[in-house]
Design a protein that fits this description.
Elements: E1 4-9, H1 14-22, E2 29-36, H2 45-49, H3 61-64, E3 69-70, E4 84-87, H4 93-105, E5 110-112, E6 125-126, H5 138-145, E7 152-155, H6 164-167, E8 175-184, H7 210-221, E9 224-226, E10 229-231, E11 237-244, E12 251-259, H8 265-274, H9 278-281, E13 292-295, H10 303-306, H11 309-312, E14 315-322, E15 328-334, H12 338-354
Parallel strand pairs: 1-2, 1-4, 2-3, 4-5, 5-7, 6-7, 8-11, 13-14
Antiparallel strand pairs: 8-12, 9-10, 12-15, 14-15
Helix pairs in contact: 1-12
This protein binds NADP nicotinamide-adenine-dinucleotide phosphate (NAP).
C-alpha cells in the first residue's frame, strides 16, 4: 500500500485533535499539513492547541512543530503536495460547504465530519460497514464539480453510530418504525468537563439540530443511487429525542423497534454477531474485527466501560428484550469522537484508498 500525504483542516479542534493522535502511527496516512482558523495560523501546532488540548495523551511529537496554515487562505499551497484532506471545522453551513468545495475543486478529495454536505444529493454519506455501495455516486459528483480526482465524501452524525449499525442487519424483517433516545457525551459538543461546568449533576434535554439529523440521516444511508443522486429511503419512520448527559465520551442510545415480520431474539443476536462488511473483508487498518458486540449482562454496555471496544471503533449492545408497545427494545453504545467522528472518517478514507479513489 502506498503512503498518502494528508491535510487535517480544523486540526486544532476536538475532532481535529483526534485525527492528529489517531494518525500518529497510521500505516497508510501521513499527516503532513495542519490547518485551522486565522487565529491559529502561523503558530506551531503545540502553541495553537496549548490549553485547548483535550486528548488523554500528550500532543504527538511529530505534530508539535508543524506550522498551522490558514484553512481559508492557504488551500492552494496543498495542491500537488497533499493527497486528500480530512475536514472538521466549526463554521456555519454555507461557509463549510464553500470551504469543502474549494478543496474538492483544487483536486483535493475531502473526507468530512461536517454536516454541511450530508444532504447534497451527489455526496455520499457513509458508514463503511453499512452503505459502501454509495461511493458509486462519486463519478457523478466529479462531473458536477468539473474535477478529475476532487470530490467530497462525508460521514454521518455521531449519534447514528449507536443505533443504525444495530438496525441495519434487521432490515430484512421489514422495520416498520423505531423510536430512539440518545444520551450524548459532552465531547460531541467539543467540550470537556472544565469547559462545560453546567453539565455536572445535570441532564440537558436539547441538542440543537440533533433530533432532525438522527431521524433523517438513516434514510439517506439506506437510500438508493439513481440517475446521479442518492434517493433517501421512504421508511422506516424514526422518531428521536437527544439529551446531553454528564459523560466525557460515548453516546448511548435506547432503541425501540417494530417489524413487519417479528424475528426471534436468537435471530437478532445471530445477525448482530455475524454482521461484518467491506472494512472487515478488506482488512482495513482501522476496521474493528468484531463490529457488534452484545453483552448478556443487564448493566452493559456502559459508556465508561465499553466505549473503547475495538479501539473505539466497535458498536456494543445489550438488554435486548420484548416490548409491549413495539416488538423489541435494546441499548446501543458507540464512541462519539472515535467511531462517531475522526475514527469513522479515517475508516472511510481507508475504504476510499483501498478502492482507488485517491489515485
Ligand atoms: P471545535 O472543537 O470547535 O473545533 C473547530 C475547528 O474549526 C478548530 O480547529 C477551529 O480552528 C476551526 N475553525 C474555526 N473557524 C474556522 C475558520 N474560519 N476557518 C478554518 N477553520 C476554522 O469543533 P469540533 O467538535 O472538533 O467539531 C468540528 C466539526 O466536526 C463540526 O462540524 C462538528 O459538527 C463535527 N463533528 C463533531 C463531533 C464531535 O464528537 N465533537 C462528531 C461528529 C462531527 P481554531 O482553533 O483556529 O479556532
Amino acid at each position: 500500500m502506498r503512503i498518502y500525504n494528508v491535510a487535517i483542516v480544523g486540526a486544532t479542534g476536538m475532532v481535529g485533535q483526534r485525527f492528529v493522535t489517531l494518525l500518529e502511527r497510521h500505516p497508510w496516512f501521513r499527516p503532513a499539513f495542519l490547518l485551522a482558523s486565522a487565529r491559529s495560523a502561523g503558530k506551531t501546532y503545540a502553541e495553537a492547541v496549548n490549553e485547548k488540548w483535550a486528548m488523554d495523551v500528550p500532543v504527538p511529537d511529530y505534530a508539535k512543530n508543524i506550522t498551522v496554515l490558514d484553512a481559508e487562505k492557504d488551500a492552494e499551497t496543498l495542491v500537488g503536495k497533499a493527497d486528500f484532506v480530512f475536514c472538521a471545522v466549526s463554521l456555519d453551513k454555507e461557509q463549510t460547504r464553500a470551504l469543502e468545495e474549494t478543496y474538492a475543486r483544487l483536486e483535493l478529495p475531502v473526507v468530512s465530519n461536517n454536516s454541511a454536505h450530508r444532504f447534497t444529493a451527489d455526496v455520499p454519506m457513509i458508514i463503511p460497514e453499512v452503505n459502501p455501495q454509495h461511493l458509486g455516486i462519486i463519478p457523478s459528483q466529479k462531473k458536477r464539480l468539473g474535477t478529475k480526482r476532487g470530490f467530497i465524501a462525508v460521514k454521518s452524525n455521531c449519534s447514528l453510530q449507536s443505533y443504525v449499525p444495530l438496525l441495519h442487519p434487521l432490515k430484512k424483517f421489514g422495520i416498520r418504525c423505531a423510536a430512539v433516545c440518545t444520551y450524548q457525551a459532552i465531547s460531541g459538543a467539543g467540550k470537556t468537563f472544565d469547559r462545560m461546568p453546567e453539565i455536572l449533576d445535570n441532564v440537558i434535554p436539547y441538542i440543537g439540530g440533533e433530533e432532525d439529523k438522527s431521524e433523517r440521516e438513516p434514510l439517506k444511508i439506506w437510500g438508493t443511487v439513481q440517475n446521479g443522486e442518492i434517493i433517501p429511503a421512504a421508511s422506516p419512520i424514526i422518531t428521536a429525542q437527544c439529551l446531553r448527559v454528564p459523560v466525557s465520551d460515548g453516546h448511548t442510545a435506547a432503541v425501540f423497534v417494530k417489524f413487519e415480520k417479528k424475528p426471534s431474539k436468537e435471530e437478532i443476536l445471530a445477525l448482530w454477531r455475524d454482521f461484518s462488511g467491506e472494512p472487515q473483508t478488506l482488512a482495513l487498518p482501522s476496521a474493528p474485527k468484531q463490529f457488534i458486540r452484545y453483552f448478556e449482562e443487564n448493566d452493559r454496555p456502559q459508556a465508561k466501560l465499553d466505549r473503547n471496544a475495538e479501539r473505539g471503533m466497535g458498536i456494543t449492545a445489550g438488554r435486548l428484550r420484548e416490548d409491549s408497545l413495539f416488538d423489541y427494545r435494546f441499548i446501543g453504545l458507540s464512541h462519539n469522537t472515535l467511531r462517531g467522528a475522526a475514527g469513522g472518517a479515517v475508516l472511510l478514507a481507508e475504504l476510499l484508498a483501498a478502492k482507488g479513489y485517491f489515485d
